[in-house]
Amino acid sequence: MTIAVIDYGMGNLHSVAKALEHVTHENVIVTRDARRIRGATRLVLPGQGAIRDCMGELEKTELRGLVEELLARQAKPLLGICVGQQMLLDHSEENGGISCLGFLRGEVRKFPTDMRDDRDNRLKVPHMGWNLVHQHHEHPLWAGIDQDEHFYFVHSYYVDAADDATVFGTTDYGRVNAHVAIGRDATFAVQFHPEKSSRAGLKLLENFVQWTP
């Protein structure tokens, strides 16, 4: 049993791998070898930085086609993290607009520059730090995690999914309701960083390791 963290040059790869090792006795590898990725029992697609760079590196490492094939087949569980979530959508507004993998319908949108809370206080962009996540639909990865639990975020763009059935978690930041957990079939993806989210984040990773879609 092997969990492969897909290494296309972008993302908090080793922190994610260490967190996974903490919650499982399964073999965890960080790799860009297509054979090892195909042979893994579970996959993690991380991402960090600008989405144009992430998509570009996915192309440069010749892993885009493999990732698209694995998403289409849905033969094994896959967890997307941060930009690894955003990449699953149709399109992102970042970097002047860029097409993404199109696995799930929807857009990645930029937080407004003049973000305000309900008391009209100015909010910072990027959205950075702890915020609660509301479980919009039930999912096995929420098992043992309290409703409105706090997770750790760092992002300036957020997912706006087109199909409510694919939205499993939301977070309010100012007047924006961001879709921070999305999925379909054997794929689940989150905007927050489970590897930085203390007990709740480790529990989500543990649930992923045990998940049989």
UniProtKB/TrEMBL annotation:
Gene3D superfamilies: 3.40.50.880. InterPro entries: Class_I_gatase-like, GATASE, Imidazole-glycPsynth_HisH. Residues 5-209 form the Glutamine amidotransferase domain. Its EC number is 4.3.2.10, 3.5.1.2. It is found in: Cytoplasm. Heterodimer of HisH and HisF. IGPS catalyzes the conversion of PRFAR and glutamine to IGP, AICAR and glutamate. The HisH subunit catalyzes the hydrolysis of glutamine to glutamate and ammonia as part of the synthesis of IGP and AICAR. The resulting ammonia molecule is channeled to the active site of HisF. This is Imidazole glycerol phosphate synthase subunit HisH. It comes from Halomonas gemina.
